[in-house]
Amino acid sequence: LLLFLGTLLYAYAEALVKLLVPARRKAVRGELVLVTGAGRGLGRATAREFARRQSRLVLWDVEPHGLKETAAECERLGAAVQAFVVDCSKREEIYSAAEKVKKDIGDVSILVNNAGVITAADLLSTQDHQIEKMFEVNILAHIWTTRAFLPAMMNNNRGHIVTVASAAGHFVTSFMVAYCSSKFAAVGFHKALTEELSTLGKDGIKTTCVCPVFINTGFVKNP
Questions:
Q1: Is residue 161 situated within a structural domain?
Q2: DSSP reduced 3-state for 162
Q3: What is the pTM of this model?
Q4: N or C: where does the chain have the smaller number of CB atoms within 10 Å of the terminal CB?
Q5: What is the pLDDT of residue 222?
Q6: Is the Cβ–Cβ distance between 209 and 187 less than 8 Å?
Q7: What is the total count of domains within the chain?
């Protein structure tokens, strides 16, 4: 509890400082931005923000209807949008879609690994396939997409990889054992990737880890 309160107070103090002395925003106009899980919730909100800043968008989601709605919203905001139905639990689909993007559209300069799934239940009630799906989407998909788009960033020493993890990647809670484990892995992936890029001298490739708390997007019933 003390650790949580200390972290909370630090976060509010940091937010206040950034409010009073805002940092210069990264210029993203014209950048090719790929957002996974763009069909709803945080992915859709992220896509809209990039659209407002005149980025070129590649949107992935497993659900065609939500993906189409997000693409239409972003186009109304003036962005050029390409949408792909991709199941991020399947490595082959990720690699296939990534090759199509690179061939037909160009090199992705900002990758937002946002797709995620959750099953909220005690460990013994969580089915094997549900546990596998959470790890396939919440962490393995991050690795496959990064492996697909990182080579071009490495060649240019330019790019940005965003890992959307969760507060559950820092603090645990009951009835979310598999989910917390996958999000701890996502945070670890971000930290290890950041360290490796630094070791390789690729200072032009930036990394960001986003760890939301509860967001009422329909992702979880009664969050």
A1: yes
A2: strand
A3: 0.88
A4: N
A5: 65
A6: yes
A7: 1
